[in-house]
Amino acid sequence: MLALVCTPLLATTVAHADNLDFSLVNKTGYVISEIYVSSASTSDWEDDVMGSDVLGKNESVDIEFEKGSKGCKWDMKVVYDDGEEAVWENLNLCSISKVSLRYDRKKGDTWAELK
């Protein structure tokens, strides 16, 4: 259902109302070993879109959906190389072209900046 295309940090994609594709940028300072994206209407996570790859610090990846993927609301889970997880629910991918993940070490907070 999802395809993974690694791109340089400066590459971006443009989202249209019918396009769910987005760029994911890792600004957390940690390596992300797994990324899951699934429809918000299901309780099951899809396959790890990274496969055997990882998303290093300050790297980005384009996450592309197959034609015919339906619905704008999607959930995303990332798993860091130390096993810690972060989850975002009900992301409106019809209006998002870039997701930048950030982490505040002092507060222990992870958040996503959506564009």
Describe the model.
By secondary structure, the protein is mostly beta strands. It has a single domain, classed as Domain of unknown function DUF5300 (Immunoglobulin-like), CATH 2.60.40. Helix content is 0%, strand content 48%. The chain is built from no helices and eight strands. The protein has strands at residues 2-7, 22-27, 32-39, 60-65, 73-80, 85-92, 98-104, 109-114. It has a five-stranded mixed β-sheet, with no helix packed on it. The chain has a three-stranded antiparallel β-sheet with strand order 3-5-6, with no helix packed on it. The two termini are 23 Å apart. It comes from bioreactor metagenome. This is Argininosuccinate lyase.
